[in-house]
Amino acid sequence: MRIGFTTGSCAAAATKAAIYMLLIGGEKNKIKITTPKGIDYKTDILDIKKENDAVSCGVRKDGGDDPDVTSGSIIYSKVKILEYESSLNKPKIIIDGGEGVGRVTKPGLDQPIGNAAINHVPRQMIENEALKICEMADFNGTIKIIISVPKGEELAKKTFNPRLGIEGGISIIGTSGIVEPMSTRAIIDTIKVELNQRKASGFNYVAVSPGNYGLDFMKKTYSYDLDKSVKCSNFIGDTIDMAKGLGFKKLLLTGHIGKLIKVSGGIMNTHSKEGDCRMELLAAAAIRAGASIETVKKILDCVVTEEGIKQLKVDGILEATMNLVMEKIMYYLTKRAGEDMQVECVMYANDFGELAKSKGAKEWLILLAQEQAQ
Predict the structure, then answer these.
(1) What confidence score (pLDDT) does residue 181 get?
(2) More confident residue, 363 or 78
(3) How much is the pTM?
(4) What is the pLDDT, as a whole number, of residue 220?
(5) Half-sphere exposure of residue 358: CA atoms within 13 angstroms, side-chain side
(6) 184-193 long-range contacts, Cβ below 8 Å, gap at least 24?
(7) Which of 91, 149, 327, 367 is 20 to 30 A from 116, alpha carbon to alpha carbon?
(8) Average pLDDT over the chain, rounded to whole?
(9) Helix-strand-coil percent breakdown of the chain, rounded to 5?
């Protein structure tokens, strides 16, 4: 299936073209950037508008074969010179959101309250492209970059942004710069291929993680490169079924609490379309750990699990709650795997590191370390 490119890549490409025309001159009808994934993004530049000290242009979002509500939208970047010479003697880049880009109104998201919902990786991409052109033009002043998406406010109603506390538009997102198609059949087939390759290499155990955050966590915490193993996306139950069918004897699942908390309720496809009861399950575990009604209410008001964890830590019941969550996760994983395959689990949070692990996970980590050394 055809890959696409994120709103973050579109914003960075539009910014590169706009700042090039502003500082160097001429007209850029095509532009190329390199995404964090290492894949080049070449795109047409649309709707160029020039002023004395500003240039605006757009890039049409192409989500590839992924059913993305933002596909076809034009992501605009307006680049304006605020100062021609900075007192710091180096370029200063200011990034903000305009029409159709949401604003953060609740804590726990990628950006602080009040900021435009332009996540940190797209911000870094935009800034890096701007700084490259500043260096080419020997420009040391201050540049302001406004990212906008006409009709973004309407598009946002089809996303989870209103529920998350992002108001007024869509988010500019992406960690890799590319959009990998989310066809269920294609993803499951890919998982099966990766499991087959692992088995054909002579292993009877496999480490699995839903996504990139799990890969980063394992590498940082346990020095194990999960790229050697299998990324299961949201299809935890299907992956267990396939691994069992291929004859694997052991499986380690490593994941962020935002996905694994759903498994504690028996949900084996963690996509938000299949069910979103993260806070309810976290609140239920907190009650079992002795949380007060006030704490439970605060957890239920959170929009992301990391915020709920902060509340549990303040109340001194984080460890007890996470151990109870892990018990439930292991109940459902073991039930799905049956008697022929041993399943273990490690759960973490971005801001808190490891939250809980199953009893047999420690042996697993030793095994993975040995494999990594080889």
Answers:
(1) 66
(2) 78
(3) 0.64
(4) 74
(5) 24
(6) 184/235, 186/1, 187/233, 187/235, 188/235, 188/238, 188/242, 191/230, 191/231, 191/232, 191/233, 191/235, 191/238, 191/239, 191/242, 192/242
(7) 91
(8) 90
(9) 40, 25, 35
